[in-house]
Structures are given as C-alpha cells and as structure tokens.
Amino acid sequence: MPDVEIVKLKLRRGTDVQRQTVTLEQGEMGYTTDRKRVWVGDGFTPGGHVAGNLVYAPLTSSAKTSLAQAVQNDLVYENNLLYQLSGTDSALLSSWAFIGSQTDTASISYDVNNKLHVVTGAISASSLNSSVVATNGGIVLNPVQGLSAAVDGTSIRVNSTTGQLSVLGAPIPASCIGNGLSGGGVEPVGLFTPILSDCLSVNYHSAMHHVIQFAHAQLLPPLLQMD
C-alpha cells in the first residue's frame, strides 16, 4: 500500500490589530483570533481583504455597537431597520450607516415599530388616480377638490354649505319615479300595487291622511281586527 501522508494546513494568525500591520502576500490567508475572520492578501494592501461579509441575526434593541466581530460592510437588522458598518470601528454608533428604505416623512414614514406606513391625512386629491373611481359608480374625481357625488345639478345637487345631497325645488317628473310608486309631476305620489290589489288598498283617514290597509279583514291576524 502507498504511504499516506496527512498534512495539516494552518493559516497565518494573530489579533486584528496585528493583521492591520501586516501586508499579506497575494493569495496568502490570515486568521484573526479575536474577530474570528479570515482575510486574503493581494500583496500590497495592509491586512488584506475579508473573505466575505456577514449578515447578523436581527437585533431587537440598540446593540449593533456590541458586535465586536463585525468588520466593514457587514450588515445587521436592528429594530426592523437595516444598517451597514461603513466605518472600521463597530463600537462607534457613527460607524453604522442606515441603508434601509428612505422616506419623505410627509406622506410615508416609519411608525413606532419602525414599519412603513402612510401618514394620516397625507393622501390628497392630486395623489389619486382616476382609476379609483368606478365607471358609472355615482362618484366623480376632481383633481383639486377630491371625490364627490356625481349629480346632474338640475334635480339633485351637493349643498355647498352642509355638503349634503339635496333635491332641487323643481317638480320631480314622473319619469324619475321607479317601479312600486305611482304619480309624480303634477300628480300625487302613491303606492303602485297591481299584483296585491286584492289584498292592499289605500283609504283616506281624517287624522293620518292616506293610509295603507288590508283590503279584507280576514287577512288580518285576529288580534289586529278592528270594528
């Protein structure tokens, strides 16, 4: 059997401070015993280049400055915000740069939980697209005034003082009266009950004017019959 020779490969090693004073040869690797990171030399950069950056587990408190093993360009989420170590000293707050989504704070901002949300009252009429209004949906969009009821201004209008819909003083024509009602125009409005004409009728009452009643007493429950 051929002889098998086992070779143990060890990297050049030392503290991170020591690494920064050494220029590793091209392709030479070094290991920092305090930061637990591997570095690769290019032959002229003191300390070499880190062999890959880390993304740390999300932090729920302001603890990014306690990441002693972090090196430049490492990433970490802290309180739902993304930071990158832009400096060389992870213990300094100023070395960490926020690289998350930037907001204008006027329309979109971060809430108390550092989650994006639309600022209350920030959406104006000019921010709305005409597609938010359904075709023939009874609502119109004015790019300056906003959403409003679609009225013809002849029979129905929007009261400029109260903002409520109101019927104009002109008589409502019979064509505006739907099924179930009769009259309109110059005629009084009443119930139209052709199918139930044998059951319902409209009678005059001195106190209540025209009232609807059952045409036959036998259709009423016994307790509701009156002499």
Q: What are the key terms here?
A:
227 residues, mainly beta, Seminal Fluid Protein  PDC-109 (Domain B), 4 domains, four-stranded mixed sheet, rod-shaped
Write a concise synopsis of the structure shown.
Helix content is 2%, strand content 31%. It has 227 residues and is an all-beta fold.
Terminal Cα span: 125 Å
The SSE order reads EHEEEEEEEEEEEEEEEEE
Which range does the strand content fall in? 25-35%
Summarize the amount of helix as a percent range.
under 10%
Reading off the top of the CATH hierarchy, the class of the largest domain is best stated as Mainly Beta
Any idea what the shape is?
rod-shaped
Number of E-state strands: 18
Q: Provide the spatial order of strands within the biggest beta sheet.
A: 1-2-3-4
- Integer average pLDDT: 80
**Class of secondary structure makeup:** mainly beta
Q: Low-confidence runs (pLDDT<50, min 5 residues)?
A: 195-227
What is the radius of gyration computed over CA atoms, rounded to a whole number of angstroms? Answer: 41 Å
Q: Provide the CATH topology of the largest domain.
A: Seminal Fluid Protein  PDC-109 (Domain B)
Largest beta sheet, briefly? 4 strands, mixed
Number of helices, counting only DSSP H or I runs of 4 residues or more: 1
Shape-level CATH architecture of the largest domain: Ribbon
Please, how many domains? Answer: 4
